[in-house]
Give the backbone structure.
Amino acid sequence: MKIKDDQFQKIVNNFNNYVPNGIKCPICGKNDWILGDSIAELSLGRDEDGYVIAPVVLLSCKNCGNVQLFNAFKLGIAQSDEDIQDENENKETKSKEINNEKQS
């Protein structure tokens, strides 16, 4: 999934909060990165429900090519299945409340 402008800004803000002095590459020591333009899916293997996938954002060092992976949930740009389900349930509850108000 492509990273949208608002998600990109959220990533930059989170990096600035977590590492205000920038991220130094653990391989070459440079602080010159390219942020991937998509949320990648990292397979963590299988469990009883199927494959476990972690959404990640890639940061690649421009100097040596080292790639760092960052959890898209932690960066605030992806939602878990549970979050999506909770949102849908909240929407359904609000919809029922609105329909009940209209009927009254």
